[in-house]
Each structure stands twice: as C-alpha cells, then as structure tokens.
Amino acid sequence: MIRIIIQELVPTDKRGTGLGIRSLATSLGTTGGFILGFVFTIVFKDLGISFIILSAPLLINIILIPKFVKETKGTDLSEVELRLKG
User: Fold this and answer.
1) CB within 8 A of 85, min separation 6: which ones?
2) Are 16 and 86 in contact (CB under 8 A)?
C-alpha cells in the first residue's frame, strides 16, 4: 500500500527518494519482524500466538488509510503535486 501512496502523492522529482526510503523501511521492518517473531515464538512456544501479537497492531491501518490517504481517481496529478508543493 505504501508504494502506491508514494507514487500517487510524492512529487515526481522526489519520487525516487521516496521509493528508496520505502525500500529501506520495508527491509528494516521485515528484519525486525523476523527477529520479534523468533523471540515471541521462543517465549510463548506457539507460532499462532506470535502471529496474533505481530498482526494485531496492523489493524490500525483499517482506520488510518481512509482517514489520511486521499483518493486521486479522476484527479489531474499535476494538481496534486501543486497542492503538495504550495
């Protein structure tokens, strides 16, 4: 989802940097998730509990995405870029 948000909302001249930062955040998040999953699995001795603990915070996205991500369907993207710069 974040890849689409960056492509839709970041100005074209900054898009490469935005996608690079997204890739870095994805890599760090994946690595951190694997480490936390390992720790939770060792502590709770159950993979199912680890999955629930790691997945539950992501449910906040159901609320945050519609609130903060504006629909750009049918909108001229040059207008979106002008609003972001100004």
Assistant:
1) 11
2) no
pTM equals: 0.54
Averaged pLDDT of the chain: 80
CA distance 19 to 4: 10
Long-range CB contacts (within 8 A, 24+) of 78-81: 80/8, 80/9, 81/11, 81/12
Longest CA span, the chain = 53
* 59: its two tokens: 């449910």
Angle among Cα 16, 19, 22 to the nearest 5 degrees reads 150
pLDDT digits (tens, 9 = 90+) for 8-65: 777 778 888 888 888 899 999 999 989 988 898 899 888 888 888 888 888 998 888 8
